[in-house]
Amino acid sequence: MLKSIRKFENLHIACWLLKDTCWVMDLRIAGMIMILPTLFLALFITIKFRKIFSELYHNLSVCFWILANTIWMVGEFFYNDSLRPISILFFIGGLIILSFYYAFIYRKLAKFKDTR
To answer: At what angle do helices 2-24 and 28-48 cross, to 10 degrees?
Structure first.
């Protein structure tokens, strides 16, 4: 399963880089189009890895990061950068997800492995 998902992860990275390149180059239409495949692949990978806790939490955090990044891009393109505070909430959400994982889940899993 890992090999088949790996292709999607690599495609996801390419889409993400293309979206951000469009953003930096002020290619609004192309940047907006790239939101859909980038988010779709991030969600697809998250769903596929949902049974592996470390992957689930890290991929959820990536989804939040992409959402934050997308909101920021749309704000710069169309709203005079006024959406940045909303994007910050999604960045913080991603950090909270990872913090929760490392504070509670990871430690519990590490203790469980030590007792075996």
So the answer is: 160
pTM of the model: 0.89
What are the residues whose beta carbons fall under 8 Å from the beta carbon of 76, sequence distance 6 or more?
23
Give, in degrees to the nearest 5, the angle at Cα 18 between 15 and 22.
140
Amino acid at 27: L
* pLDDT one-digit tens code per residue, 56-89: 999 999 999 999 999 999 999 999 999 999 999 9
Cα–Cα dist 111/88, whole Å: 34
Residue 30 tokens read as 């192309």
Q: Which has the minimum average pLDDT: 14-23, 39-48, 102-111?
A: 102-111
